[in-house]
Amino acid sequence: MAIKRPQGTQDILPRQTALWQYVEEKIRSLCRRCGYEEIRTPILEATELFQRGVGMETDIVNKEMFTFRDKGDRSLTLRPEGTAAVARAYAEHKLYGQTPPWKLYYLGPMFRYEKPQAGRFHQFHQFGLEALGTADPLADAEAIWLAWTLGAELGLRGLALQLNSVGCPLCREKHRAALTAFLAPQSADLCPDCLVRLDRNPLRVLDCKNENCRARTAGAPALPDYLCPECREHFAAVRSYLDELRLPYQLNERLVRGLDYYRKTAFEILAPGLGAQNAICGGGRYDGLVEEIGGPPTPGVGFALGLERLLGALAEQNTTPSLTEPPCYVLAALGPEARRWSAGLAAELRAAGFVVLMDLEGRSLKSQLKFADRRRAAFTLICGEDELARGNVLARDMRTGEQREIPRADLLREMENSISKERRVKSKE
Q1: Peptide bond into 101 cis (omega under 30)
Q2: pTM for the full model?
Q3: Phi, psi of 164 (to 5 degrees)
């Protein structure tokens, strides 16, 4: 029996990879424009990092982590999210000793043991960014703007921004008392997960997707009504910046996010057409996270955006870009001597930046021309015994069928002229 990929994973094949690379370059370009630098953290982290950082009572830590013990009997976990890892790197390398803020972004695979379904995989990919060392509400608005702008620049339509404030520990304590009193008479009707949450972190009950639980929590005390003056002022400032940035948003008092480190700002960006898993991006402020994992008190804000969901939204809206590739040239060599001579020519042209392919099977000229057609080559550069003797290459235009011999010494210049002519024609179109 043939071995297949593990459940909940996917192969990203070459034709698909081109679109991934396009989106990733859009991300890198936008981050550069906003002053964010890339950070790369290990895929493996100490399990304790996520237990302390993400929260012991979250579904991620309780149910979804890929955790194992290594040969040194250390508990390691495949990272289920990126923020805790970035915070760990920030503390470990003492980046807080340098001028704040640190504006960082990452791209890479994450791992969660969830039931595979549309928009959910065991291995998935995230783009995330973090601004560490600043409590300024402008940083919150900038992060939201960047996530929104990425979707807009990729052509997504119908995006919806949902916004809330989950306050600070002082606000949460007052809200917890009111929420617990509201939920206590209905506890028998809550799902098993919410019964646990009710005791340990009742705010998470509001995040439950169970329809019965959502019905039971209708009319529950809203956290924004319990914000302290500082949190209320911060939230008002964030909204003021979003208004200035002309970002439309909806206040959602039930939005609490699924990780315990969030404080103050919480947000999600939704894309139509993705069904139940329609949040392509989520984030917020996490001012206590670095301190929780052993670093100094450090404010921070950021988000994570799922690349599979983003690409799914592009496909659903038929806004996947048509990608243009640079002109391709096929070097068709006939005979051992011509192949050796052509190998040197291919290396010379590739070093100059051209895309040059060679037949690696010693096939006939007819087969090599068919190969050039399949690869949509602009020209096939043919070298047989006669061309080799004259030090020339026979250049065949694959669109018109026209052919002419070009001395090897002139080939590079002729190819550059050909590309310049092609660009001029396309610009006029």
Answers
A1: yes
A2: 0.87
A3: -155, 170
